[in-house]
Amino acid sequence: MGYHIAFSKPFQLKPRVCQISLTPYLHFCTSIPAPGEDPISPNPETTASPGPKPDPKTETPNVAQEKQYQRIPRAKQQHRSPEKLEDIICRMMANRDWTTRLQNSIRALVPEFDHSLVYNVLHGARKPDHALQFFRWVERAGLIQHDRETHMKIIQILGRYSMLNHARCIVLEDMPKKGFELDEDMFVLLIDSYGKAGIVQESVKMFSKMKELGVERSVKSYNALFKVIVRKGRYMMAKRFFNKMLDEGIGPSRHTYNVLIWGFFLSMRLRTAVRFYEDMKVRGISPDVVTYNTMINGYYRHKRMEEAEKLFAEMKAKDIAPTVISYTTMIKGYFAVDRINDGLRLLEEMKSVGIKPNNVTYTTLLPDLCDAGKMTEAKDILKEMVRRRIAPKDNSIFLKLLNSQCKAGDLKAAVDVLDGMIKLSIPSEAGHYGVLIENFCKAEEYDQAVKFVDKLIENDIILRPQSTLEMESGAYNPVIQYLCSHGQTGKAEILFRQLLKRGVEDPLAFNNLICGHAKEGTPDSAFEILKIMGRKGIPRDADAYRLLIESYLRKGEPADAKTALDSMIEDGHLPDSSVFRSVMESLYEDGRVQTASRVMKSMVEKGVKENMDLVAKILEALLMRGHEEEALGRIDLLMSSQCNVNFDSLLSILSEKGKTIAALKLLDFGLQRDCDIDFKSYDKVLDALLAAGKTLNAYSILCKIMEKGGVTSWRSYEDLIKSLNLEGNTKQADILSRMIKGDDKSHENKKGKKKASVAA
């Protein structure tokens, strides 16, 4: 297959990994650390402490097994590749599904299986289900008969991944069938595995099963059970099993007491923990550093620092050297009761005896120093951490440091916090930068704030998928507003579009971007922002619309300005008269009279009655261009809105410029609505119609004028009658002649004009 294989010697076994699980000391993920464990973290590198070595009789199965079952290197052969056979098999299993084809590949690769190879493959398997399938396959295929060690290995793996039913079946069913004698170590593994999975009752059942199957129980199995029970707060059950252990004649070990004391403190049973501590000494079992650390931690959590101080002094008097855990717990206790100076004093003592603070110590110190306002000390601690390249266990400390330094007014120290994060290889997030940006903006040091914005954009910090600390509105809104008002709207938009991808939909930021683009003469970009806001249902600001419209008008794009005006009205904003006038005037001057007319219509409908001079120009242009119906509709709207319309001026202009049909329709419209029009306007329209040879139109409108009681001094009656006769319209001529004679008799004394205004 192209691999260079190094074969192993049979029956020479050693797993090449660190020990798994059950150790003499506890490592639980709980609020109170297990004995021998850091009061904050179960990091084994920080929890090592001096004291008596574990009793081999009570040593957990993993430790004893690893010592007995040592794997020696496989026989080295002169090959180009040093890759071991078990490594090749593990890689094949990791990259392929467990199929017959994979089984055949492994079988072809291995000329002969031995226990060392099987053990190492189980240990190196990356998927627990593949490990189990491999374990069963090699035996069913007759390639090997498993021994105790390979059984123990698969039980460890299954327990670690909570595949507990399989582990249970192997111990209680498969191994007895194969003739293996069950022992305590196997049950300790099951008890511990069920406990880590949180299934306390199953752990208890496994413990009871030992007696049923005749497996002798010792303090080792009791200790495993105690860890499971107290981890879940079952302190009463722990006491019952402790008494049962004594009844069976099994004496507790130091580790037993350490576990129980830790568990009682976990359940906030201070008196019970102290009673067991005293019972431990009565039985002649000397407390070790783990015991003292557990007691000190328990007292600190009950804010009983006087008792903790006595124990701390007692352990030193007994020549039990305090560990970093001891000092860290005491410091945290002092901080918890606001004895900050005592905590700092103990920190100096710790350093003076050669014990260096670890990451847990720093994690303890920094938040409490911030809360106490000891920012100088916090700054010094951070410098020490950076110098020693030690990162705290909780990265949220840095956010607290940033906020605290900014609150204290020391922005330089806040910047140093961010630099420290970078030097310690701690991922900086948008929220960290946001704190600095916000506070630099508050201090009006906008150049510094913009520098941090540049870093955010350049490094795509906002868009990092693993980021959990978002930038707050108090940070991005001030800097976006500053950028938009100082000609850097493009940069502001890049920043906000990244925020938008993170779900930020801030109306203030949107409106600032619109205003910025409008001021910089890029209204299309501003309008695009408006569209985004519309799609997301975000309220749009009237001032932003106004600036956008003005920007379009400055660029000479009145049609786009009108579109923006329509959007503004649709959003429920009422533009002021100046906005309407600007758009109408720009459209009018651009020759878009009908579009200007529609803007005028919107203006009147919204109750805006200023700028009537421009309205008259638009009406005149509509009539001159032959859009009579549209013009008459606008006039009707104006009249219903109590706005003045100067009919005489419009009729005069239309007559003088030969727009007789438009003049005729306008005069007819006025007569139908009983608008008072100057008789001179009648004369001008009639003259224009007669001059254009439109005698019937002149006859028709003259009849309507006379029916409405209008009086005219028109001197061209005879010319109209003559024209009607010449054109063969004798009937109309005769009617007009009789009407004129009758009118002269009834109105011979009435002169002047009739003019009534349409009330404004």
Automatic annotation (TrEMBL):
UniProt keyword terms in alphabetical order: Repeat
Residue ranges, annotated region (Disordered)? 36-83
Q: Where are the PPR repeats?
A: 183-217, 218-252, 253-287, 288-322, 323-357, 358-392, 506-540, 541-575, 576-610
Superkingdom of origin: Eukaryota
Any one GO molecular function term? mRNA binding
Q: Which InterPro entries match?
A: PPR_rpt, TPR-like_helical_dom_sf, TPR_mt
Q: Which SUPFAM superfamilies match?
A: TPR-like
**Gene3D superfamilies under this entry?**
Tetratricopeptide repeat domain (1.25.40.10)
Domain Pentatricopeptide repeat-containing protein-mitochondrial, which positions? Answer: 518-633
Residues in the signal sequence = none
Q: Would the keyword Cytoplasm turn up in this protein's UniProt record? A: no
Q: Which family does it belong to?
A: Belongs to the PPR family. P subfamily.
Q: What is this protein called?
A: Pentatricopeptide repeat-containing protein-mitochondrial domain-containing protein
